[in-house]
Specification:
The complex is a heterodimer of chains A (115) and B (278).
Chain A (H helix, E strand, L loop, with lengths): L1 H19 L5 E9 L6 H12 L8 E7 L1 E5 L5 E4 L14 E5 L3 E10 L1
Parallel strand pairs in A: 1-2
Antiparallel strand pairs in A: 1-6, 3-4, 3-5
Helix pairs in contact in A: 1-2
Chain B lengths: L14 E3 L26 E5 L15 E10 L2 H16 L3 E7 L5 H12 L5 E7 L4 H7 L5 E5 L8 H11 L6 E5 L16 E7 L6 H4 L1 H6 L2 E5 L11 H11 L4 E4 L8 H9 L3
Parallel strand pairs in B: 4-7, 4-8, 5-6, 5-7, 8-9, 9-10
Antiparallel strand pairs in B: 1-6, 2-3
Classes of the chains: A alpha+beta (115), B alpha/beta (278).
Chain lengths: 115, 278
């Protein structure tokens, strides 16, 4: 359940960033999570409440932007959608590919409330 | 709350002990606070200050909602500290391996056999990661190899900050090999770079041949795949070629070693690689 540790890293980023601008509450957080990032969204949602308790993120709306997976075949240059990290090129079946997107795991933005 | 183990207090976090040392090291909670190197966080506080004062109904609360564009990688802290470890290893010519597998595939047995056979040729250091007990560190300590045990408590993987602290405690000499035995878990450790030179995933013949596609993240991030317990092949129902094909499907760059750590078969190739990694 590394999602807890991920959630705590998110809390840390939010705490650090709000401290910089002297805000004490976040009303909304936007996360970008790729389908190939290794994060189970169900698990992240499961630990979220517990992780944000007593932090600036408590009661913040959580918006997750899901980034779909995309790869490019090293052998034939075909670009293709990826659902799994082991998906091979649909055209030439090669396993050699570059992952163009889908590994994202980012805090995109924080909406803070300033008095 | 503690992010690694989820505990409520600071006293149940990871502990780092050498064999013979006692616990209660005044609950040092090593999830690294030292040395935040916040470089450029692309911090566009350029104030999209949507100060929509919500004037609907009657209450006019006029605190401003302001959006901070953060664009920060969630794993950044771990990666920065991993980079610090990597720099330390490089400066001291330490070759660091991160050994990952499910529990019971033989990580510690492979280590024991390797250390016993090569300790006269190579200077080894070991970091053992487990949720509980000093058992593995004690096994390594019997071979007179410097070892520290990280107990992660409820934590399911090692992170670069605890490894940094363990490395400091080990006082590693130049030109050595550092073996980091991760917590037995084929899922969580995959996301956490420890600053290692190579990641070694270990599978045993008693596990299913489809492990690589069931747990692809771990195989995707590994450099080496050891297939252990080859001596059990006659008794188990596994197709090694199929296993390798699955693994190569996930990661075409994987390099394989087949061995039996208890019987000693197939160790030579692994030893050659350790002496001359490529």
């Amino acid at each position: 359940m590394h999602e807890l540790s991920i959630a705590m890293s998110i809390v840390k980023i939010a705490e650090d960033e709000t401290a910089k601008v002297k805000a004490d509450k976040v009303s909304k957080i936007e996360l970008e999570i790729g389908v190939l990032s290794g994060i189970e969204l169900d698990s992240l949602n499961f630990v979220w409440e517990m992780a944000v308790k007593d932090s600036v993120l408590e009661n913040a709306e959580k918006k997750i932007i899901i980034i779909h997976g995309k790869g490019k075949c090293v052998d034939c240059d075909t670009e293709f959608e990826m659902e799994n990290i082991y998906d091979c090129c649909p055209k030439c079946n090669s396993n050699f590919k570059g992952i163009l997107q889908g590994k994202e795991l980012k805090v995109k933005s924080l909406e803070i409330i300033q008095n | 709350m503690c992010g690694t183990c989820g505990c409520g207090s600071d006293n149940n976090g990871p502990t780092i002990l050498k064999p013979g040392e006692h616990k209660h090291t005044h609950g040092e909670h090593h999830h690294d606070e030292h040395g935040h190197s916040h470089d450029h966080n692309h911090h566009h506080h350029d104030g999209h200050t949507h100060s929509h004062g919500h004037h609907h109904d009657n209450h006019t609360h006029d605190h401003q909602h302001k959006v901070l564009e953060i664009e920060q990688d969630i794993l950044q802290n771990n990666q920065v500290l991993a980079a610090r470890n990597r720099g330390y290893f490089e400066a001291k010519n330490i070759f660091a391996l991160n050994l990952v597998s499910s529990p019971g595939s033989g990580k510690t047995s492979i280590l024991e056999r390797t250390l016993a056979d090569l300790k006269n040729d190579i200077s080894f250091y070991v970091i053992e990661g487990d949720q509980q007990t000093l058992n593995d560190a004690n096994r390594i300590d019997k071979l007179k190899i410097p070892v520290v045990q990280i107990n992660t408590g409820k934590g399911c993987h090692l992170e670069s900050d605890v490894v940094y602290d363990a490395v400091k405690k080990l006082e590693i000499k130049d030109n050595s090999i550092l073996m980091i035995e991760n917590v037995g878990n084929l899922v969580c450790p995959s996301m956490f770079d420890l600053g290692e030179n190579k990641r070694v995933v270990i599978l045993s013949t008693t596990e299913g041949e489809d492990k690589p596609i069931k747990y692809p993240d771990m195989f995707h991030t590994a450099d080496i795949c050891i297939i252990n317990k080859m001596d059990l092949l006659p008794y188990v129902n596994i197709d090694i070629e199929k296993l390798k094909n699955y693994a190569l499907q996930v990661n075409p760059h994987l390099q394989f070693f087949e061995m039996s750590a208890t019987k000693g078969e197939g160790m030579e190739k692994w030893y050659e690689w350790l002496k001359n990694p490529s």
